[in-house]
């Protein structure tokens, strides 16, 4: 198999894949914020939550559901800022995966990645990193204060 990448490019491709995978796992895990509510440990992420309160209409009380799950719909996410964070972070993870998988293919296919394609991929990767780790979180943290 011929490669269109230099040694530095191969290292970049593998590190990009590892970082993209870590970013996606972090996005899907519901452990962004940890706390307690009704004497139970709770946690949630952008679109998943664990141990969340539900109103029990038959007993007219609030009970804790001690399992992890997604919000019932996109509109069920608590705030507009949190929904924006979900979209921006998901978009960033998608861009990171796109670049990482393209770079890994460049390790196996000759003449797939040129200098120009590498520069464009670097720009897309920078944008994906800002979305998945920087700007998306800033919107969420701003809302919490």
Give the secondary structure arrangement, pairings included.
Layout: H1 7-28, E1 33-37, E2 40-44, E3 48-56, E4 61-70, H2 80-108, H3 115-144
Antiparallel strand pairs: 1-2, 2-3, 3-4
Helix pairs in contact: 1-2, 2-3
Protein name: LHPL6 protein
Transmembrane segments: 87-109
Signal peptide: 1-21
Describe what you observe in this structure:
The chain is built from three helices and four strands; from the N terminus they run αββββαα. By secondary structure, the protein is of the alpha+beta class. The chain has a domain at 8-33 and 74-142. The chain has a four-stranded antiparallel beta sheet with strand order 1-2-3-4, with no helix packed on it. A hairpin with a 2-residue loop joins strand 1 and strand 2 (40-44). The radius of gyration is 20 Å and the shape is elongated. It starts with 6 loop residues before the first helix and ends with a helix.
